[in-house]
């Protein structure tokens, strides 16, 4: 349509070169409800991006709209800085009702600027103030935001104040082994950093991690490894910061992803879904860390009443309707179905995730995998010892799959170390029928994209 094309042309001419989603998704949304977006050209799309995980209940959920309208109709002030209001009180009450066991009874909350990266910055400032130390421990593949401090702790901007540790994963294990052995080696590395006086890493102010790395390629942390990180940080008086910006509010099949491992962090960084589609970010932390002086951390837009009302409605709806449990069940079903792609297509290297946070990693099958040396080879290796390096990533193929998905009315995102992981973040309200449609469209997109890449072949 000329109208849509004109809008897209003006966007390209007037907006920053830093724009991202708009490049891969050249659509102009004009209406949306639930999981469905309608473009200006009249086409409908199933949205498996969900505002990068922001829309736990999908677009324009009735309980969210009702909560927003109630505040608007009440005549309540919309901008109140950090003053107490009934809307804020209700939000904090509902938020604390959902917190992991062991934290809610001893928690404090700090409202930050409206983005998750603001909450990350606040968390860093908090632990540095509380411990009197400066350095941080973070993990390869991490993503914590776009402000300078958050970037320092992410996987793409080295900084002397941040020591990077290996994050365990099976498919591209940094130690070449994966599984429990790979997680154990990663934990030992972390332990050596904390205990070796010659490690070169000063005693840190805190450790930050994601229970599931999202932008890093949908990599769930092993539960035992996460418990080990909790024990190591506790033993060495290092506050543990858990970034639940994308994993929180039922996304992974538990209300908070740390609950899978039974871990209670010292600090939780929350944003995205807690605002019910509107900008809101908070840091929740143990009261023992609450050593800030008045005004130590502030922000003009900390008191977004509409976001708090929408957030309260979202948190309550997820909790009262068991949507985290549903995400667990439906996510398991989708993962099971998608893992069949590894049998059918040589270009599908791995399918992984937790709950409704799913990743499909595309690889280049043009070459044969090469054997890799086991760290501790045996004289009589078993078949399990004869492991192989994963095939190279295929970012161009992943981009082709994304384009084919869009042609079929399915919005997906890319991520991972080489942007070769197709990511699915559907709303928790996705129906069984919609899940089937997502799987069918994605499978068809992979098949079509594979045929356009001459080196990619169907498995016999």
What is the secondary structure topology, with strand pairs?
Elements: H1 2-14, H2 21-24, E1 29-33, E2 36-39, E3 44-47, H3 50-53, H4 62-74, H5 86-98, E4 107-111, H6 116-131, E5 136-139, H7 148-152, E6 162-165, H8 179-195, E7 206-209, E8 212-213, E9 219-220, H9 223-235, E10 240-243, E11 267-270, E12 282-286, H10 305-320, H11 323-338, H12 340-344, E13 348-354, E14 357-362, H13 395-407, E15 410-411, E16 413-415, E17 421-424, H14 432-452
Parallel strand pairs: 3-15, 5-6, 5-7, 7-10, 10-11
Antiparallel strand pairs: 1-2, 2-3, 4-12, 8-9, 11-12, 13-14, 14-17, 16-17
Helix pairs in contact: 4-10, 5-10, 8-9, 11-14, 13-14
Organism: Streptomyces fuscus
Protein name: Diaminobutyrate--2-oxoglutarate transaminase
EC number: 2.6.1.76
What report would you give on this structure?
This protein is of the alpha/beta class. The protein has two domains: 2-60 and 324-378 and 391-452, Aspartate Aminotransferase, domain 1 (Alpha-Beta Complex); 76-320, Aspartate Aminotransferase, domain 2, CATH 3.40.640. It has helices spanning 2-14, 21-24, 50-53, 62-74, 86-98, 116-131, 148-152, 179-195, 223-235, 305-320, 323-338, 340-344, 395-407, 432-452; strands spanning 29-33, 36-39, 44-47, 107-111, 136-139, 162-165, 206-209, 212-213, 219-220, 240-243, 267-270, 282-286, 348-354, 357-362, 410-411, 413-415, 421-424. The strands form four sheets. It has a seven-stranded mixed sheet. A hairpin with a 2-residue loop joins β1 (29-33) and β2.
